[in-house]
Amino acid sequence: MSPFEILMHRMVWAFLFLLPLLLLLGRWKAYLSVLKTKRTFGMLAVTTMLVAGNWFVFIWAINHNHILQTSLGYYINPLVNVLLAVLFLGERLRRLQGISVLLALAGVAYLTFSIGQFPWISLTLAFSFAFYGLIRKIAPVPALEGLSVETLLLFFPAAGYLFFLNHQGMGAILRINRQTDLLLVASALVTAVPLLLFTIGARRLPFISLAFLQYIAPSCTFLLAVFVYHEPFSIPQAVTFVLIWSALALFSIDAAKSYRRKHSINPAEEPTPFTDT
């Protein structure tokens, strides 16, 4: 199957998964109010394009054996978040944060010049998801309602495209085998559930916890690429990953110090993992 057709299925089944969830949780009225609010709806239209682009590049990269580049992209993502916070939210870089960003830039530059190829997959994934998170942080909409609006905007063009494919006898659903059909339907779970939990967790967990947890996914992807799919791991890639890992280590040390310093002054402000901040 082509990456684009996989993406279309991901959009359709994600919406069909979220729709009954809205009804079961009694969030239908809140969902409709989001659709009627022009500013919020406009912001979600932008995040829809960002997340759709992110999904497509990720699927394309996996299907074309660029798994290490996807891992690198999501390692870079927390550092891009810091950069966007400085540029758009008026936050100031602390010394270790500044060094982290410079190390990440050095890693990307070294990979570009050493192999003569710009790591566009990694940077596209990092920046698209960082901008997605930035706008979702600003948009006054809960996680479930926001994601449901995004998948609604994607649902109709995706369903139309899949209907056209099937009408032309080229679609994969119900034509290859039952396993493929089940995998396509299951794409709703791997699309909606992680995004929902990430958005909810970002509101409930302390920042330091969230920062460390963000490294789990690219670490798993890195291990899969090297030890399961046996992608070539060259010296330039190794140097780049070492620079990125060093940047993330400094970033995490700085976040831990800042978190402890803040809550040693105001320990009553520390949130528990099960209460919103």
Structure description:
The chain is mostly helical. The protein has one domain. It has eleven helices and no strands. It has helices at residues 3-24, 28-36, 38-63, 67-88, 95-115, 120-138, 143-167, 178-204, 207-213, 216-228, 235-265. Helix 4 crosses helix 5 (95-115), helix 4 packs antiparallel against helix 10 (216-228) and helix 9 packs antiparallel against helix 11 (235-265). It is globular and about 55 Å long. It starts with a helix and ends in a 12-residue tail after the last helix. Residues 270-277 have low confidence and may be disordered.
How would you characterize the largest beta sheet? none
**What is the count of distinct domains?**
1
- The Rg value, from CA coordinates, equals 20 Å
- Indicate the percent of residues in helices: over 70%
Structural classification: mainly alpha
Uncertain stretches of 5 or more adjacent residues: 270-277
Order of helices and strands: HHHHHHHHHHH
The total count of strands amounts to 0
What is the strand content? under 5%
Shape: globular
Query: What is the end-to-end distance?
Result: 43 Å
User: How many individual helices?
Assistant: 11
Mean pLDDT: 83
